[in-house]
Amino acid sequence: MKFLLDTHIWLWSLLEAHRLHRSISEVLENDINELFISPITIWETMILAEKQRIVLMPSPAEWVKEALKHSPVKEALLSHAVAIKSRLIELPHHDPADRFIAATA
Question: Which of 77, 64, 66 is nearest to 36 (CA)?
Fold first, then answer.
């Protein structure tokens, strides 16, 4: 099965795996599953680091590059259709990153 990971799930899986619910850990650990992240997740990760909400060493850019090399995730592609859908999708909040991630799914 294919799964598009939310930013916090991807970050927790790499930084704080103990915070993940067991059912999510099982999905992430199952080799049959295909795991994806949106480029928006990388953008959101960099913003979180810039705002010092997370610390990524030696630098956020280097940390992300290394994480992508070692993380079993594939890149979910952004498209014009995803951009349009991000504005049409209904969410309980207006977080632009979540809108893009939900539209990508």
Answer: 77
